[in-house]
Design brief:
4 helices, rod-shaped, about 0% strand, single chain
Length: about 90
C-alpha cells in the first residue's frame, strides 16, 4: 500500500496466492485419495472407497478452512497504515 496498491489489490494478492496453493493441494490430495482407496478400503466402515459425496464434502470443508486462513492475514494486511510499516522498516 505504501507503493500505491489499493486495499483490494492487497486482499487479492493474499487471497489469490493462498487459494491457488489450496486448489493445487486439493487436486493432488483428491487424486491421491482416489488412488489409495484400494489400500484403505478395509479401514472404511459404511462408506464406499470412492464415494463422491464424502470426497466432495472433505474437499469443501478444507477449502472453506483454507479460505478463512487466507482471509484473516489479508484483512490484517489491508488495515496496516503504510507510514507505520515504513517507519518499522
Amino acid at each position: 500500500m505504501a507503493l500505491g496498491a489499493s486495499r483490494e489489490n492487497v486482499a487479492g494478492l493474499g487471497m489469490g496466492r493462498g487459494l491457488a496453493m489450496t486448489v493445487a493441494g486439493l487436486a493432488i490430495g483428491t487424486g491421491g485419495a482416489v488412488v489409495t482407496t484400494r489400500y484403505l478400503a478395509t479401514l472404511l466402515y459404511g462408506v464406499t472407497p470412492r464415494d463422491p459425496v464424502i470426497l466432495g464434502a472433505a474437499a469443501l470443508t478444507l477449502g472453506v478452512v483454507a479460505m478463512a486462513a487466507c482471509w484473516v492475514p489479508a484483512r490484517r494486511a489491508m488495515r496496516v497504515d503504510p507510514m507505520v510499516a515504513l517507519r518499522h522498516e
